[in-house]
């Protein structure tokens, strides 16, 4: 057993303070981030995927089927406390994070594929994120109890994810298609600014709960690291097994291992009232997967350079 604390109730009933105004602010920030990302997405990005359908199928299976399944097995293996287990499942249910595009470029991966998969995965996530959370969470009795206690309605979850991801994605792509010059100008400013605002906002929100974070983060430390590297390894070796090139293997490893924890935190506060272990897991993931993703990308960039040299 990887985790051990004196009692379930201490962690599983721990609540992170987050009021309705802050929750709405996160909603808006995430929608703006998605809008900024969509301003850089072209219709051709989707068309490119269907030129090589095998890559699309492997990518979607890796991110939305294989990773949640392996996460479920990891939960069964280490038997964490229920709120932490649900946090792990939420991580695995989310689509890829936007930093994956930059990390793929740094790693010498297939950047065009990364951008296309991020866009496509965001659309798929409108249905698959609620489905995976409800399905895998329902199969593990401790997390199933939490889901029953909050009376989680998957259709309400789909509606919220659609508002946060779907509508900004469609509107941003329409502007990109019909007004590319305007999209370019806004995208250069909006994408880095909105992500910076989100990071500052989340840091501010957790500053109010700093004592809780310091006292309990060690319970999720090893879990998050193990889950993160499980994502990288499963994405890399599954794509290798499917016969993809090394360039595409790196891309799918990064796409699978870097998840949109901002969306996960929003759903945690919206539906689970900032459930302690779940929120801690997602909060630490949001820091760790950026650091590990960029570290892995840097390693691959040096390895590629040495091979070429």
Give a count of the beta strands, DSSP E runs of length 2 or more. 0
What would you call the shape? globular
Strand proportion, as a percent range, falls in under 5%
Note poorly predicted spans.
1-7, 305-309
Instruction: Note the run of SSEs as H and E.
Output: HHHHHHHHHHHHHHH
How many H/I helical runs? 15
| Average predicted local confidence, pLDDT | 81
Q: Tell me the radius of gyration.
A: 19 Å
Distance between the termini: 46 Å
Question: How does the helix and strand content classify structurally?
Answer: mainly alpha
Helix content: over 70%
Biggest sheet layout? none
Note the topology.
Layout (H helix, E strand, L loop, with lengths): L7 H5 L7 H19 L4 H9 L1 H26 L3 H12 L5 H9 L3 H29 L1 H9 L4 H25 L1 H28 L2 H7 L1 H24 L4 H12 L3 H12 L3 H33 L1
Helix pairs in contact: 2-9, 2-10, 2-14, 3-7, 4-5, 4-7, 4-12, 4-13, 5-7, 5-15, 6-7, 6-13, 6-15, 7-8, 7-9, 7-13, 9-10, 12-13, 12-15, 14-15
Word description of this protein:
- With 309 residues, this protein is mainly α.
- Helices cover 84% and strands 0% of the residues.
- It contains 15 helices and no strands.
- Helix 4 (53-78) crosses helix 13 and helix 9 packs antiparallel against helix 10.
- The relative contact order is 0.20.
């Amino acid at each position: 057993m990887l985790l051990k604390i004196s009692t379930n109730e201490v962690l599983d009933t721990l609540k992170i303070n987050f009021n309705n105004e802050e929750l709405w602010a996160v909603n808006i920030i995430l929608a703006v981030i998605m809008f900024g990302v969509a301003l850089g997405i072209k219709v051709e990005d989707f068309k490119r995927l269907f030129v090589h359908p095998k890559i699309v199928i492997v990518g979607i299976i890796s991110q939305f089927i294989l990773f949640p399944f392996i996460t479920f097995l990891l939960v069964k293996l280490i038997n964490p406390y229920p709120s932490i287990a649900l946090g792990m499942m939420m991580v695995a249910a989310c689509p890829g994070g936007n930093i994956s595009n930059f990390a793929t470029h740094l790693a010498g991966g297939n950047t065009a594929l990364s951008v296309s998969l991020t866009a496509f995965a965001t659309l798929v996530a409108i249905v698959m994120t609620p489905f995976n959370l409800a399905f895998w969470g329902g199969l593990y009795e401790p997390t199933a109890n939490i889901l029953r206690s909050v009376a989680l309605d998957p259709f309400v979850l789909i509606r919220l994810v659609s508002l946060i991801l779907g509508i900004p994605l469609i509107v941003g792509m329409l502007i990109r298609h019909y007004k590319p010059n305007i999209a370019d100008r806004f995208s250069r400013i909006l994408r880095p600014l909105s992500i910076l605002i989100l990071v500052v906002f989340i840091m501010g929100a957790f500053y109010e709960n700093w004592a809780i974070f310091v006292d309990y983060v060690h319970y999720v430390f090893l879990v998050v690291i193990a889950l993160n590297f499980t994502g990288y390894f499963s994405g890399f070796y599954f794509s290798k097994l499917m016969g993809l090139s090394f360039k595409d293997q790196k891309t799918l490893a990064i796409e699978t291992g870097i998840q949109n924890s901002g969306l996960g935190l929003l759903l945690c506060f919206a539906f689970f009232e900032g459930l302690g272990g779940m929120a801690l897991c997602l909060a630490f993931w949001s820091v760790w997967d950026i650091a590990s993703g960029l570290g892995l990308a840097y390693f691959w960039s040096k390895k590629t350079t040495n091979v070429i040299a």
